[in-house]
Amino acid sequence: MGESLTREPVRIILDTDLAMGAPGADVDDGFALALALADPGLRVETVTTVGGNGDVVSSTRLTRELLGVLGRRDVPVVQGAPAGVEAAEEIARRVLAEPGRLTIVAIGPLTNVARALAIAPGVARAVREIVVMGGVFLEQTNVAAMPGEYNFWCDPEAAQAVCESGASLRFVGLDVTRRVRLSREDARALASGGEFGRIAARHTEAWIDFQERAKPREAIEQGSCALHDPLAVAVVTRPDLVTWSEAHVAVETAGRVTRGVAVADLLMWENPPEPNCRIATAVDAPAFRELFHERMRALP
């Protein structure tokens, strides 16, 4: 396995719509928080919460509970949109106080990040990088009710504001994250570990059950679930896990049938637009799997 490509820990603000622990809720954001804390190449400075998988108040409570399970009650949690602007203000304050030092890892709707940029446009220049789990770039959702990837679909205006901000951006989209999976067998193996593993295994099996009922014709969702958010966390210190391409991305905000759809220009034609981000276009799924399970085994 490759070593982290950074020497000093990368200091991150993790912006999340965490739902692990709620009945029948998605689990990948909980795994992402656990992975961020387990990665010796990362230092989680603050967690900010946003509404998405559930309401923001529940997300805040579940985040604090999970931090307790992981033995990290010392990590501050700041509640954000839509209930308030505290998270956006905290993001702006922290980033502006230490230009070039903090990375934002956004694994929910981009509402807090866009609000921080609106409050203080200088955040775009001061942030080290913004790494986003969001969008679908080389494929599409193939779901008319949700044409854009969920995080972009929830708040397409915020996603477009981030794209236009001028910040250093990396997007890890649905077409790549769907390829990294956690099976029922993997979940049962987690249950033999510490308290987090036992909790995560129980909720993972419940989430796979829900996915199988909700998506009976989608073969990839049978027997496993995707680790969308953990992949976005992992690439902060292991960018080699995915293949990156420069692109110009814009997000549809007003389309009657294309809400939240990301249009990625891959700069292939003559006189292309200026790139505004890098997008993941492929993933080394076995390498990520090895890294993920190694980190999970190290958790309490």
UniProtKB/TrEMBL annotation:
Give the GO cellular component terms, alphabetically: cytosol
Note the InterPro entries from the entry. Answer: Inosine/uridine_hydrolase_dom (IPR001910), IUNH (IPR023186), Ribo_hydro-like (IPR036452)
Report the residue ranges that make up the Inosine/uridine-preferring nucleoside hydrolase domain in this protein: 12-290
Keywords from the named record: Glycosidase, Hydrolase
**One MF term in the entry's GO annotations:** purine nucleosidase activity
Hydrolase among keywords: yes
**In terms of domain of life, where is this protein from?**
Bacteria
Q: Which GO terms describe its biological process?
A: purine nucleoside catabolic process
> What Pfam families has UniProt attached to this entry?
IU_nuc_hydro
Family annotation (PANTHER family): INOSINE-URIDINE PREFERRING NUCLEOSIDE HYDROLASE (PTHR12304), URIDINE NUCLEOSIDASE (PTHR12304:SF4)
Q: What is this protein called?
A: Nucleoside hydrolase
Q: Which organism is it from?
A: Nonomuraea longispora
